[in-house]
């Protein structure tokens, strides 16, 4: 009997609980008058309210790949070169980058290249030119152009004219240290490549 009483009490408690929750949530009352305005509903657990908004679908932008750096561009620095051409109107030089060796390194490089040391041993430098790539570089307005036999650095236009005169026709008697900053030539210095006598 005791189990029966506990079971009935549990059923009544459950029924009253469900009815109370229904009434608090704004459900109808048995009298049909609607929810009691004196009763305030307090949520028993926090709930989040999500607002859904729709936006027009994003139109895909045309994908432009980032610019690819020029693999043949010269980084800032000084490079030994042959000057192959000079454009006076465009203020550019066309250069062929070299490897220059001096002293014992020159002897070793000549041996590696199967060049007779007797043919080059009196030259002040040994030049290796393995890459046929020619680069055309703009010459900066303030570039210093130093040519052998000229004491002062001439203006860009006069210096380029003198440089063109000395490199046309091409000769490997001289090479030129070309200094590049930001893709432009800021210095050209003429060097002797072969023995004078």
Question: Which tags fit this structure?
Answer:
alpha+beta, extended, single chain, two-stranded antiparallel sheet, 197 residues, 4 helices
Overview of the molecule:
- There is one protein chain.
- This protein is an alpha+beta fold.
- The protein is 24% helix and 26% strand.
- It contains four helices and seven strands.
- The strands form two sheets. It has a five-stranded mixed β-barrel. Strands 3-4 form a two-stranded antiparallel ribbon.
- The radius of gyration is 44 Å and the shape is extended.
Structural class: alpha+beta
Beta-strand content: 25-35%
Question: Termini separation (Å)?
Answer: 133 Å
Shape: extended
Give, in spatial order, the strands making up the sheet with the most strands: 1-2-5-7-6
Roughly how much helix do the residues carry, as a percent range? 10-25%
Strand count? 7
Q: How are the elements arranged and paired?
A:
Layout: H1 2-24, E1 77-87, E2 92-97, E3 99-101, H2 104-112, H3 117-120, E4 126-128, E5 135-146, H4 156-167, E6 174-181, E7 184-192
Parallel strand pairs: 5-7
Antiparallel strand pairs: 1-2, 1-6, 2-5, 3-4, 6-7
Compact description:
The chain contains four helices and seven strands; from the N terminus they run αβββααββαββ.
């Amino acid at each position: 009997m005791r189990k029966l009483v506990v079971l009935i009490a549990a059923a009544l408690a459950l029924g009253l609980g469900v009815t109370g929750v229904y009434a608090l949530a704004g459900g109808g009352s048995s009298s049909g008058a609607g929810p009691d305005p004196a009763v305030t509903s307090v949520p028993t657990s926090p709930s989040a309210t999500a607002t859904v908004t729709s936006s027009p679908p994003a139109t895909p932008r045309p994908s432009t790949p980032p610019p690819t750096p020029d693999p043949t561009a010269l980084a800032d620095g000084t490079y030994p070169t042959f000057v192959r051409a000079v454009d006076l109107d465009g203020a550019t030089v066309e250069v062929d980058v070299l490897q220059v060796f001096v002293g014992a390194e020159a002897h070793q490089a000549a041996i590696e290249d199967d060049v007779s040391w007797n043919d080059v041993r009196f030259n002040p430098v040994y030049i290796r030119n393995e890459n046929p790539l020619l680069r055309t570089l703009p010459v900066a307005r303030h570039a210093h152009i130093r040519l052998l036999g000229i004491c002062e650095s001439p203006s860009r236009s006069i210096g380029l004219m003198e440089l063109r005169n000395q490199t046309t026709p091409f000769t490997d008697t001289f090479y030129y240290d070309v200094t590049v900053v930001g893709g432009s030539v800021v210095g050209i210095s003429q060097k002797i490549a072969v023995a004078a006598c």
